[in-house]
Predict the structure.
Amino acid sequence: MFDKLLEAQKKAEEIKKNLDNISVNAEIEGGKIKVHATASKTITSIEIDSEFLKSAEKEELEELLVTVMNKVLVQAETVSQNEMQAATRDMMGGLGNIFGK
């Protein structure tokens, strides 16, 4: 039983590392602002169209940045949950006989 739990913990750690290698992206205003992140919820880059930046007001830009960053973080969370659920299903298959059933 202990071996199965260690295996499950190891698998969860592998998934967390793999999330660092999965990219998610979000954009707003027709691609004028783009945010890239990892599925582990680390923002890796922000791109703002230079022409849009010149004409945007500070408050508008701030609101759009908050919106697009929240959007990419939701995508990252969705990917993360899907990866964890898939791993849980796999692990439960291996833990099905843990109580001798």
